[in-house]
Design brief:
The complex is a heterodimer of chains A (426) and B (170).
Chain A (H helix, E strand, L loop, with lengths): L4 H10 L9 E5 L2 E5 L4 H11 L9 E5 L8 H17 L4 E3 L4 H7 L8 E4 L13 E4 L2 H10 L1 E5 L3 E7 L8 H11 L9 E5 L1 H4 L3 H9 L8 E3 L4 H9 L20 E6 L6 E3 L7 E3 L10 E4 L1 H4 L2 H11 L9 E4 L4 H9 L2 H8 L2 E2 L20 E4 L15 E4 L2 H10 L5 H6 L5
Parallel strand pairs in A: 2-3, 2-5, 3-4, 5-6, 8-9, 8-11, 9-10, 14-15, 14-17, 15-16, 17-18
Antiparallel strand pairs in A: 1-7, 12-13
Chain B lengths: L7 E5 L6 H4 L9 H6 L9 H4 L5 E4 L11 H8 L4 E4 L4 H9 L3 E4 L11 E5 L4 E4 L4 E4 L5 H9 L2 H15 L1
Parallel strand pairs in B: 1-2, 2-3, 3-4
Antiparallel strand pairs in B: 1-5, 5-6, 6-7
The chains are: A alpha/beta (426), B alpha/beta (170).
The structure holds iron/sulfur cluster.
Iron/sulfur cluster binds next to helix 10 of chain A.
């Protein structure tokens, strides 16, 4: 009987030839990632209470991204505790204020296809773009992993989501995910796996694929996954990872899926999700004219180099509207450096964008850039739950970096496609 | 998880109650006591003040969607919530509840419960009695391998027991 890619990875990690959905197994963990909010701050005391040590520090990656840079005594103390724990335990894989965890992992060569990994963060499925089975867990469960190197799992069924055709100009992976949040729903896949496939996925960059797996969390999936191909192998090589057998991690042709969903990428238009749910997505035109106080390009979901370039392609030769502010928080330091080198940052700054540190920032209301009561934000992040980005009576819309940038220019929710088509006099 | 079956009141919320509502990011760096005071305030500003130890939180579909922050489950325990009852749970939140010794009860009948109803709940038997409406609902049983952990009070006490046994052997 054919097996899906996720089932093959789980079987390998569980030391079995074969697993099937519904079965409860215990898996060896190849990699455990924690950040400053969910990590040492929480598990240090638990480990001490148990009198236990981490099972294998070489398999642990620690990233500070939620409270960076420190902005008050409490956040400084959280970061200080994180640094001390890392030093005391001798964790070599430590990235301090260098970027958002889900972006750091592949950027620094920690991911390889076929890996079974856990992260102390709900967007850990992002790693699925690299052919890994990675899912988010809470801090107590992470403590269990740190002690034992193992975790139990009820083998999830896999849903196959196929995007045929190709995306039009000005349409991005974010639009795919917002459309899926609406059409598939936030709870339909019920902690299953979403595997993305089809010509539109094959044609997309790793950064864009990471948006698909990242927002699988919004679909309620345990994780998302994309089978490795030539694009994956090339990106791994660029990150200094050589995995000769990478491309062999594929689902079988006769694998059994809980459901197969088919969509046409060429028919997709830019989407905007209204407050307070990603499932409130509709074509951008439906929200046209909504006045915006803040535009935010940030987060693991929406501030990779591809996103910054999308924004720059709109903003070159244009200005952010008066009465609107555009905040840009690149997802990592390396992304900032690359965007500086290729002129992307200059284009953003000249248009009036405000550059923010690499980190979670306003995405979850932890850092700078939060919203006041009744303020309206259009954001390239993944979630617009009530109160997530600041005051509980602020309003957050979600869209792609194209849509956020175009809306920053007019101060209102705006379809980016006419701006892309229009030649701007230099 | 408490073994005695004291009656408690139901606080009912809708579908897709998210972790930002349960544990708002603005207060995440503070103490669990502070965070608990803001629990669910985006949906019901009076909740944290009104809920009493032994009460129940009831939701619709996909309860606890969103973040991995287990404070979302912890604040409910902090407020003394005895169990969370919903038609369905987000997977991550479900795991977090079990790890923290808070029983997540998946119950098809959750939709019949109204705010203020008085319930008694038996998590082990998977049974909810709605005294206000003279109704009984059954819940999806918690798998055996997890029930043991919940009975121990969550993953940490469970691990401590296990480590203790290992130390005794060696
Ligand atoms: S950027 Fe936002 S979604 Fe991503 S890890 Fe940080 S808080 Fe979570």
């Amino acid at each position: 009987m054919g097996r899906t890619l996720a089932e093959k990875i789980i079987a390998r990690a569980a030391g079995r030839d074969f697993v099937q959905p519904g079965q409860i197994v215990t898996c060896r963990v190849d990699l455990a990632m924690v950040h400053d909010s969910s990590g040492p701050r929480r598990h240090k005391a638990m480990l001490e209470q148990l009198g236990a040590k981490p099972w294998d520090v070489s398999r642990i990656v620690v990233v500070t991204d939620h409270y960076v840079p420190a902005f008050d005594a409490e956040s400084a103390a959280i970061l200080d505790l994180t640094r001390r724990w890392v030093r005391d335990e001798g964790v070599a894989n430590f990235y301090d204020m260098e970027g958002i965890c889900h972006v750091i992992l592949p950027e620094r060569g920690h991911l390889r296809p076929g890996m079974f990994a856990v992260g102390g963060d709900s967007h850990s499925p992002t790693a699925g773009a690299w052919g890994c089975f990675m899912f988010g867990i809470g801090a107590t469960e992470m403590c269990g992993v740190l002690v034992t190197g193992e975790i139990w799992l009820k083998v999830p069924p896999t849903h196959l989501v196929r995007w045929n055709g190709r995306l039009g100009e000005g349409v991005a992976a974010k639009d795919i995910m917002l459309a899926l949040c609406r059409d598939v729903g936030l709870g339909t896949v019920k902690y299953g796996v979403v595997e993305y496939t089809g010509s539109a996925v094959a044609a997309s960059s790793m950064a864009e694929r990471m948006v698909l797996t990242n927002m699988s969390a919004e679909l309620g999936a345990q994780t998302g996954i994309i089978a490795p191909d030539r694009v994956t192998v090339e990106a791994l090589a660029a990150a200094g990872v050589s995995v000769p057998e990478a491309a062999s991690w594929q689902g079988d042709a006769d694998a059994i899926y809980a459901k197969v969903w088919e969509f046409d990428a060429s028919a997709l238009v830019p989407q905007v999700a209204a407050p307070h749910s990603p499932a409130n997505a509709a074509p951008v035109g439906d929200h046209r004219g909504v006045k915006i106080d803040q535009c935010y390009i940030g987060a693991c979901t929406g501030a990779k180099l591809d996103d910054l370039r999308m924004a720059a392609s709109i903003l070159r030769g244009r200005k952010v509207a008066r009465g609107t502010r555009l905040l840009v928080a690149p997802a990592s330091q390396r992304i900032t450096a690359a965007a500086a080198a290729d002129g992307t940052l200059a284009a953003l700054a000249e248009a009036g964008a405000i550059l923010m540190p690499s980190g979670c920032g306003a995405c979850a209301g932890y850092g700078a850039g939060v919203l006041a009561e009744r303020e309206v934000c259009l954001s390239s992040t993944a979630r617009n739950f009530k109160g997530r980005m600041g005051h509980s009576d602020s309003l957050v819309y979600l869209g792609s970096a194209y849509t956020v940038a175009a809306s920053a220019v007019t101060g209102r929710i705006t379809d980016p496609r006419p701006m892309l088509a229009e030649k701007v006099a230099a | 998880m408490n073994a005695d079956r004291r009656p408690g009141r139901a606080f009912v919320f809708g579908d897709n109650v998210d972790t930002d509502a349960l544990a708002p990011g603005l207060y995440m760096k503070g103490s669990i006591e502070t965070l608990a005071r803001h629990c669910l305030e985006a949906l019901d500003s009076g909740f944290a003040g009104a809920v009493r130890p032994g009460d129940f939180v009831v939701g619709g579909e996909n309860f606890g969607m969103g973040s991995s922050r287990e404070q979302a489950a912890m604040v409910l325990r902090q407020l003394g919530v005895e169990a969370v009852i919903a038609r369905s749970f987000a997977g991550l939140f479900f795991r977090n509840c079990l790890n923290l010794g808070l029983a997540p009860l998946e119950c098809a009948g959750a939709g019949s419960i109204q705010s203020g109803d008085v319930l008694t709940v038996d998590p082990v038997a998977g049974r909810i009695i709605n005294r206000s409406r003279a109704q009984t609902y059954s819940c999806v049983p918690i798998p055996d391998h997890l029930l043991e952990m919940v009975k121990d009070g969550g993953l940490l006490p469970h691990l401590a027991k296990k480590l203790e046994r290992q130390r005794d052997v060696s």
